[in-house]
Amino acid sequence: MKDFRRVFRFVRKEDSFYLFLVLLQTALSALSPFVLSFFSSIIIDKILAQESFSSILLLAGHGAIISLVLSLLSALLSPIVEGRSLELEERLQNRMDQKALSLSYATLESKEVKGLLDQSELMSRTFGGINQAMGSFTTALLGFFSFLYALVVFLFVLLLPRETTGFSYLPSPLSDLTVVLLAILCSLLSVKARSLYSKRMTREMDKATDVNRRFTAYVGILTSKDLHKDVRLYQMKEGVLYRMKEGIQPLVNLLAGMNVTASWTCALSVLPTIALFLGSYLIYGFMAYEGFLSVGNVVLASSAAVNLQAAFSNIFSGLFNAYQVCHSESYSFAFLDLKSKDDSGERITFPISRPSFTFDHVSFSYPGEGESVLKDVSFTIPFGKKMALVGPNGAGKSTIVKLLTRLYVPDSGKILIDGKDINDFAFEDYQKEVAAVFQDFFLLEDSIEKNVAGSKRMDKIAIQDALRKAGVLERIEKTKKGMGTHFGTELDKEGVSFSGGESQKIAIARALYKDSPLVLLDEPTSALDPISEQEIYESFLRLIQGRSALFISHRMSSTRYCDDILVLDKGQIVERGTHEALMAKENSLYKKMFLSQAQYYQNRSSESQIHQKKQ
């Protein structure tokens, strides 16, 4: 019941008027068939009694008008109820999006949370989410109103005069009670048959986390834009299709098994309805034959019996399905209940105008991975200095940037800003002090100026200046709308698809516009050619005067612009110094990496010159 209550708390909080509309619409919908049965029974009796045609026609007209009014009101309310139900679904998704953006990066990237999100998506896709939960509840509510109306009909039939001498089963209330008990029994049997399927579905889906994770991963691969180029170039079609089948087949097998179960349980659920239909007509038919009921009342009572069975079936199945869907939504609400560590820290302002940043014996390993990525790392970035991080792949360079931006928290040791732990500051306040450009940067499908401004107030002159400094303003000014040009073409037909290098320059402009005292560049020029990269770095040296900077680049030529160079290897700082000092050191790792790249470029240059001479 906890899952059930959680969904209803959400609905009541988000749209309490929706619940009133559901009550009204289901009450009207449930009443309509009983009105038809009531007028039909009276009309049949009047026909058999050979009453005047005008009186029968008048009665039929009254019944038609009442039924029409009920149907119209229900039809008018139905799309309103459905629309508000879908809006509730959107609001839940919006809450989850907000939660995802508020959670710490480390929490969101953990395997447990990723599994929770995948399972939430699978459950919503399979069971229908909030919209389906409220639909099932509406079915139960429809059954409840039908039950009330059926009881009124049975009470009406029971109170009809039945002349008899002594005890007789047919005219006694026992016959009506028999029909009611038969309706309850048949509805329970019908619901039991359906519940066999629902219980198995819920049980199997709860155990399908790993299957769903693989299915989601393979679907993501299939929809990737980058996939199709390599598939065609390297003739990987057969391999991709095999891996797709391997990932999707377990889920297909699971759903196929569910369909078989659904087929025979649905067939079983129909049998009790047929039994009730025959039983009620048999009992009330004999009563009419013996003269205890009119033919019209037989129709009325038998219809009420079938409606009563449908009512009980709707109540039980609706509540069971609602509970099932509410349980499926428990994954979504479990995600909403996650606590973010981003809000840690005191609400204190930054009194620091020229901050320095210090790693104090920092060690770190990613969640779920045993080996430490960083091991007892210590260094300081003095204010106004330009430092470089170099080293082999996997040495821990990008991890240092993620720790400095508080996307992760060290396992041991501290990161200090002028002697104060960075976690002592409110997360949002701290983020104002750091600007970063990652290799896997993200730009919104929105205008260029909004992408550059980010969360800061938009200053078009400053945005233009940042784009100019990043070397991309001229390209943007050639577009139709200038800085108002939409980035990307999926959401705006007049948008522009910028190249990887141009997009990266826009990301760099965003970091410049933020005007933070510390700028972190994690492979920010990976999509640029060497000449553009050199221009960017030389420009950066001029642009970030009065600020600190930490560069990460695999192109060693960029390190020559830095005041200090840290060389990382296997999570530890193994060398430190200026370019000249490290190059003067015999057998240094930095020297080997630099000369290796220099030799590569020299060889490439020589080959180019030879090729040009041959031409």
The average pLDDT is 78
Largest sheet: 6 strands, mixed
Shape: elongated
Strand order of the largest sheet: 6-7-8-3-9-10
Total number of beta strands: 10
Key descriptive features of the protein:
615 residues; 6-stranded mixed sheet; elongated; disordered C terminus
What does this structure look like?
With 615 residues, this protein is of the alpha/beta class. 64% of the residues lie in helices and 9% in strands. The chain has 21 helices and ten strands. The strands form two sheets. It has a six-stranded mixed beta sheet with strand order 6-7-8-3-9-10, sandwiched between helices. Strands 2-1-4-5 form a four-stranded antiparallel beta sheet, with helices on one face. α19 (530-543) links the parallel β7 (518-522) and β8 (548-552). α2 runs antiparallel to α3 (53-102). The chain starts with a helix and ends with a helix. Residues 604-615 have low confidence and may be disordered.
